[in-house]
Design brief:
- The chain has 20 helices and two strands.
- It is mostly helical.
- Among the domains are: 85 residues, Ankyrin repeat-containing domain (Serine Threonine Protein Phosphatase 5, Tetratricopeptide repeat, Alpha Horseshoe); 131 residues, Serine Threonine Protein Phosphatase 5, Tetratricopeptide repeat (Alpha Horseshoe), CATH 1.25.40.20.
- Helix 9 packs antiparallel against helix 10, helix 9 runs parallel beside helix 12 and helix 16 packs antiparallel against helix 17.
- The termini are far apart.
- InterPro entries: Ankyrin_rpt, Ankyrin_rpt-contain_sf.
- Keywords: ANK repeat, Repeat.
Length: 330
């Protein structure tokens, strides 16, 4: 129905009165209701629905997902009133609530929850709405989800590469909302999650804790808050890498001091301590551990872009004890 694509309401009304099928798909395969939903055309959508347009579809992007994605509150409400499935997943396994949470749209998220949206329904990589909100720093949406019973410790495959997900099949990488918030440096979200009972010592399947990821990324205030709320300063990954090692490796001096002040054990490299290397920068000491560190970090839900950043940092690193540049570690 070409008239619907251009929003010609009167022409659409005339065509419908003469028996036009409101669900007919043109050559591009997108029915009129989806077009109206993508463009926020409320009256056109209402006209189509009142004349038999299906509120649910098997399209890659159903009408409700389109309206939710673009933030059309009135249109979202209209579709829900006409029976749109609030928990239907799109072609990527994503629910409307997960979309609203990713976008930080509190109004639509609340509307969906009021119509029965499942608060813990995960998407195609097992990321829950709470994890999506936490990842993007949307504290108001995160708070709303927690008020509606979101599982603060629900883990996921979020952050894993497609190759990893394909290899592991049904095995989750174990990224929690708190882990992702710590990785991204979202202080306020971290505080919110912990205040609602997030496990500060929950780890990924490879043993990376929230303190580990905060230490790796140099998020000092988050690390301090985690430690104040019971984070295990010596909790190492499954390959034996503790937070102190990655903080030292990346030259996060203040974080190293913080971890040591909270009892971090420097006895972590083949029976040697940091004092054994007092005349050598710790980055040089850890150079021998690079293959192991790379493997652990890669398996701890890092994306390809994150690894590229790490590789750039490795080519020329600043010596912690002076201002000169160290040569590549290759």
């Amino acid at each position: 129905m070409v008239a619907a694509v251009h929003g010609y309401l009167n022409i659409v009304q005339l065509l419908l009165s003469r028996g036009a099928d409101p669900n007919q798909r043109p050559t591009n395969g997108v029915p009129p209701l989806v077009v109206a939903s993508e463009k926020g055309q409320v009256e056109l959508a209402r006209l189509l629905l009142e004349n038999g347009a299906r509120a649910n579809s098997d399209l890659d992007i159903p009408p409700l997902h389109a309206a939710t994605y673009h933030g059309f509150v009135e249109l979202t409400s209209l579709l829900l009133e006409h029976g749109s499935d609030v928990n239907q997943a799109d072609n990527r396994g994503t629910s409307p609530l997960c979309i609203a949470s990713t976008n930080g749209d509190v109004t639509i998220a609340r509307l969906l929850l009021e119509h029965g949206a499942r608060v813990n329904q995960a998407n195609g990589v097992d990321a829950s709405p709470l994890l999506a909100a936490s990842s993007n720093g949307h504290i108001d949406v995160a708070r709303l989800l927690l008020e509606h019973g979101a599982d603060v410790n629900q883990d996921s495959n979020f952050g894993a590469s497609p190759q990893y997900t394909a290899r592991q099949k049904d095995v989750k990488i174990g990224s929690s909302p708190l882990f992702i918030a710590c990785q991204n440096g979202n202080d306020s979200v971290v505080r919110l999650l912990i205040s609602h009972g997030a496990d500060v010592n929950q780890t990924t399947n490879h043993g990376a804790s929230s303190l580990f990821i905060a230490s790796l990324n140099g998020h000092l205030s988050i690390a301090r808050f985690l430690l104040a709320n019971g984070a295990d300063v010596n909790l190492a990954t499954t390959r034996g890498i503790p937070p102190l090692a990655v903080a030292s490796f990346h030259g996060h001096d203040e974080l190293v001091r913080l971890l040591i002040a909270h009892g971090a054990n420097s006895f972590f490299l083949d029976g040697l301590t940091l004092l054994d290397f007092e005349h050598e920068p710790i980055s040089g000491v850890l150079a021998n551990q690079l293959p192991l560190l790379d493997k652990v970090i890669l398996e701890s839900s890092y994306t390809d872009d994150d690894i590229v950043v790490r590789e750039e940092r490795r080519t020329t690193r600043k010596c912690p004890r002076c201002t000169r540049r160290r040569p590549p570690l290759d």
